[in-house]
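Appendix B, example 12.
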Amino acid sequence: MMFAAASLITGALLAAPQAEARPDVVAFRGDYSPGTIVVKTRERRLYYVIDEQHAVRYPVGVGKVGKQWSGITRIDGKYREPAWSPPADVRRDNPDMPNVIPGGTPQNPMGAAAMTLAGGEYAIHGTNRPQSIGGYVSYGCVRMYNDDVTDLFQRVKVGTTVVVTAR
């Protein structure tokens, strides 16, 4: 889901609660420092690198065809149950969508938490559509199960490097 950092309506960065998810710790190789998030779009998986040989792996939903992107960025904000304003691209496709969807409501696509990415267009966030995880479903954001985004939220901080690959 395309996302503008300014579209988050919240007063402050908040601390994450204790996580309840049970993500997989897997063998992982790559030239990434511990603490880096790596999103492998083709796999529809997010990896949080914990050391030179291991990562925590989560299933994710990624950008639809034509909405995918790759590159290196950083987390520039962390928010629990944020309100959300649909960006222009989403509103163009869904003209009846309200201007603001309150945080914590079933209609809010941000789910339990959102971590905005530098540049203001995208986020790693929970979802109110768990059946979308594992698909090419968003406007460029990375969707996670709410328990998984809560787990990742507690592991990372503002400034964490995020690498999105096409493979």
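The radius of gyration is 15 Å. The chain is about 10% helix and 35% strand.
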